[in-house]
Amino acid sequence: MDIRKAIENLDPANDEHWTNAGLPAVNAVSDAVGENVSRQQIAEAYPGYDRAKAEDERDGSDQEGPQPPSPDEDNAAVDNETQPVSEEPGEGLKVGKHDEDPDAIAMIEDALRVAQGERYMRNYELQAFVRQWSVQQTLIRESQRRIDARNAERGKR
């Protein structure tokens, strides 16, 4: 089975077939193809395909919509375009198509989610500690006020 066909056969309802970012899971595609497949090969075989598009296709709502270009059409379009090259010395990296690579964006979003998750949890725990400390301080002040009032009553006698 070719990579594109394997991607098309992924089940949008099966979480093991998709990443958290909604991209086809490399393991699921590799299993269907019968050999190891890279993220880049998946992106090249079916550019822009994600879980939402798979769900739309299953629902039949995407049947009349535009179809993604086949890999041959996509490569021909890229060959005809001139890719701007960075003029910074030593960089030598092409700019353009790579900026819109959905896999790179998804990987960055996943990394941010993971990093923010820990930071937000620590922040939440710190806020919970501060709230608890504030409540305890209020109770301490109320207790001290009662003790002061009781001592003042005793001093009047």
Which percent band covers the strand fraction? under 5%
List the helices and strands in order: HHHHHH
State the major sheet.
none
How many helices does DSSP assign?
A: 6
Cα-atom Rg, whole angstroms? 29 Å
Number of spatially distinct domains: 2
Total beta strands: 0
Low-pLDDT parts are 76-99
Name the helicity range: 55-70%
Shape: rod-shaped
Structural class: mainly alpha
- Mean of the pLDDT scores? 76
Termini gap: 97 Å
Task: Output the keywords.
157 residues, 6 helices, mainly alpha
Characterise the protein shown here.
By secondary structure, this protein is mostly helical. The protein folds into 2 domains: 1-81, no CATH class; 95-157. It is 61% helix and 0% strand. It has helices spanning 3-8, 26-33, 39-45, 51-59, 71-80, 102-156. The termini are far apart.
List the helices and strands and how they pair.
Elements: H1 3-8, H2 26-33, H3 39-45, H4 51-59, H5 71-80, H6 102-156
Give a quick precis of the structure.
This protein has helices at 3-8, 26-33, 39-45, 51-59, 71-80, 102-156. By secondary structure, it is mostly helical.
